[in-house]
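Issue: copy button drops trailing tokens. Both records pasted manually instead:
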Amino acid sequence: MADVHDIKKEKAQRNTEFEYCVICWQKTRVRRNEPIETRVGYVEGVGQLCPRCMKDLYERGEL
């Protein structure tokens, strides 16, 4: 049986307009066609993060 995380991930993979956070799969305001150099919350080698996950990782010293 699929859990909420799996459902969010499947929805993210179908959406072609916006990026989703690679940690919590929350939809972000970042359009997929936006260059990574201009994105807020993009971590090279990881992907796009939502503001909340980015803040959490930063506060824990993991970014």
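Record 2 (pasted manually too):
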Amino acid sequence: MAFSSDLLRKKRNSLKNLPGGKDETPCLFVKTGNSLIKNGRFVEAIWYFNKALEIYPDSPEIWNNMGLAISRTGRLAEAITCYNIALKDKHDDVEVIYNKALAHEELGQSGEAIKCYDKLLEKNSLDAVAWCSKGDVLFESGNFEEAIIAYERSIKLDPKNEISWNNMGFTHVKLNNLSEAIDSYEKALEINPKIEKIWSNKGLALAKLRDSEKKLDLQKIAVSIRSEGSEKESGEFLRAGLRSIERSKNMKEDLDL
């Protein structure tokens, strides 16, 4: 799934260490693998996790980390297999379920991803990140109304999350709720005014709103002309006005942001 460039993504995937009481050697393998992932050396990390699995083949922590490393190489189906093994004995592990959901998202398997988020929300209905992530999947699936509901739940739980506000704003744009979209972007910018994408999204929403207002004004003028002249004349005027608006959309203008 190719995520919309106008959605901001907050990934919560995390690496795990082995619990206390484990032998020093596999713990060292896992720590080294984790460090390699953080430095972008995923193939080497996989080697270290494999060495650790030779000693602890049923470790959910190692299988989770292996899944993360493999997912970074683009082998998402294999990563999901790793997460399933990790969940075999710890079926309600929040971090592993979240990592699995992200892999399903990347594969475009929105139904499976939503199942994961629903499982997280069954465990903790106050998980704001899970609500936001579910909203993202619903958005990508074209279920904009449902996405709005999910973002609203996320915002209610965490009103200081600019990502949820931005993504709700973009969803409102898709529904042509332009005033609501601009309000959402403004909320996001109050929280974090340093994210350029949010400024851009707000600017595009403002431009679209202005175009809508101009089209409405032109339609009113056309109706007025129709009452005084021919329908042909009013139609030509309206088409000319709309063409000018389309041309203006291709020009860079000061949006007073």
